[in-house]
Amino acid sequence: MLASARKTNEPAQAAEDGAKFVFFDLETTGLSPRGCKIIEMAALRVGEESVIAGSFQALVRISQPLPYFITKLTGITNTMLARGERIESVFPRFCEFVGDLPLVAYNASFDMGFLRAEAARQKIRLKNTPVCALAVTRARVPGLSSYKLKMVAEHFGIQERQTHRALDDCVMGLRVFAEAMRAARTQAASSSGLAHVTW
Question: What pTM does this model have?
Answer without folding.
Answer: 0.87
